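Let us practice reading a record.
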Amino acid sequence: MASFEIESEHWHCGARWIAGVDEAGRGCLAGPVMAAAVVLAPDTRIPALDDSKKLKPAVRDTLFDTIHAEALAIGVGQCSPGEIDELNILWASMEAMRRAVLDLALEPDVLLIDGNRPIPDAPWRQEAVIKGDARSLSIAAASVVAKVTRDRLMVRLHNDFPTYGWAGHKGYPTAEHYAALRTHGPSPHHRQSFRLR
């Protein structure tokens, strides 16, 4: 279960604003890669907050609202399918995270980045945290915000392109999605650099 153990080390060393940063949608065939940065106060209590992949959609939706009510600051960033094709998914994910941090209403002292690498050439102090969305409450909050924001976007895109079934699988590589691609070909929201068939 996520906790403030990692954040506490930085608070103890004098950091004031610690932003957890995570992304969603890296493995999808369609839609943007979405990132979120979330700053929580040390006394924040959000029961059941954990890695978004472990949570049911209804729980994520509830936590999304709670995080927005409790967080000191939330930033969101994304990279489009075209940017993913140009940069590749790794660097597009990093760019989406950088944009999420820049979207914060306050300047963070430290970033806790989910994964094994920090944001390249970023001006902030950073710590990469492997499996951070299961270990850090701030990263877990960012995980939920990124996931829910992206899922809701894919549902809206589904209304324009219903043949692909994005409302159900959110652009991930399911059998239904591949079948639709074989029948209809890619849409403007598909990542052309990904294997689509």
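A brief commentary: Residues 137-160 form the longest helix (24 residues).
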